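User: For my dataset I need records formatted as: sequence, then structure tokens, nothing else. Please produce one.
Assistant:
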Amino acid sequence: MSTGEPSPTSTRRTVVAVFLAGVSVFLVLYETQGLLPAIREAYGIDGPTASLTVSATNVAMAVFLIPFSMLAPRIGHARQIGAGVIVAAILALVLPFTPTPELLIAVRFLQGLAIASVPATAMAYLSLRLPSAALPGAIGVYIAGNTIGGLCSRLLTGLASELLGWHGGLAFTAGISLIFGLIVVWLLRHDLFATARSRAVLDTEPTVDEAAEPDPAPTADDPAPTTEGDGAPRPPRRVIPLSGGLWRIYLTGFLCMIVFGGSFTMLGTRLQQDPWRLSEGAVALFFLIYLVGTVVTTYYGRLATKFPRQHITLAGMLIALAGAGATLIDSLASIIIGMSLLTAGFFLGHTGASAAASAARPGVDSTRSAAIYLTVYYLGTSLGAWLSAVLFVDFAWPGVVAMCAASLIAVLVLTLTGAPIGFKKRR
């Protein structure tokens, strides 16, 4: 059994595979969002029914994240990722040929199930395969893949539909997703076809850093370890891991997503009103601001080697607060700058919290912890979208900004009161 760190080539292959897996599944996650008018007209259904083609997928993701996190150690993390990307893409290819809206919604629900298998597993898989020093950067690259996939899911499908119709737009996006999925399977081929015994060794073998570091003493939130039959200590594993400040990390992701999901949900409504009255196509271009998140997450690893995660999160929240305030000015340039700052700040907080939730901890199943984080994260999306709409009706855009400010200040308080990072401290 090897105890050395993975080679640079192996590390790059793992990071690229997980990055492309994120692109592949998120590419089909939002593919019907920009096609709702065409879907409504094609099936003769109303708007709320058509919107179920979006919400059904997200509901399935939230429901199945934790079950998939529990299944991954049994069947193998790489196998679950590989199966998820392929099944999600194949179901996407089926979408253009569904004869009824009920079947379309059902297939979208199944897509959400398949998609959930990747985010429920990816960050824990990285923590198992990579040395601790490489983990923050790898997590950032993976989240960047999610961001690119989510952005292209909205824009690419819509642009292809202009030439090919909505059926062709869905098929085009599905084809690209399948190509990426096949590349992922090829990159992960060694883990995919490993024997059950070798997978067990790979999934439990500590890295050099982990082997060298002594386990921290138990705290009030983390009970003393029990013992095995031979007297060896065995840390307890909780069904819902909350020790070591994990509940703070979950709450950080939840609050950050209230800000991000809520602000972008109502931004289009604001821009389509006076004094701008922008078209839907022009408003869609504002999603390109997501690329700011891609840049931030890609370079997060470099920042994490120079500054403590708490300092990065604090800076991110202050940047996001400044951005939210800038959007109060009735100027398109100010709104673009403000939303860019808000996006950058959000991704600084989310990337650090994601990495901390998936980092290895004594007595904690990192796969399950990452899945709980993502479940709470997607709940934040839903609450932020709903709450921002309610506030916009009564208080217009200042109400949305107030919601963002309250959530960001809450994250500042959580961070200042000591949410732990879960990374090895540099000497």
